[in-house]
Write a structure and sequence with these properties.
elongated, 79 residues, mainly alpha, single chain
Length: 79
């Protein structure tokens, strides 16, 4: 499975509250993905890197959901 697809699946699990980011373990991730832990380390190198990518995706999604000036958010243009 491609890295992007694996990350999509894991991010979906994280958003649904089925995957704890702070206590994520390689074996648990591998089981959820139906893969071996070797695949996890091949794509990310470490669990810290995987956590960082999941956190980055969360931040990107949050930023993308914020309104921009002129989208019914007059408080954004007040400053």
């Amino acid at each position: 499975m491609a890295k992007g697809k694996l990350l999509d699946v894991l991010y979906g699990e994280l958003r649904e509250g089925r995957l704890p980011l702070d206590s994520l373990r390689a074996r648990e991730v591998a089981e959820r993905l139906g893969q071996s832990t070797t695949v996890i380390y091949h794509h990310w190198g470490s669990m810290a890197q995987l956590r960082a990518e999941l956190a980055q995706r969360s931040v990107q999604e949050l930023v993308a959901s914020l309104p921009t000036p002129g989208e019914g958010a007059p408080w954004l243009t007040a400053f």
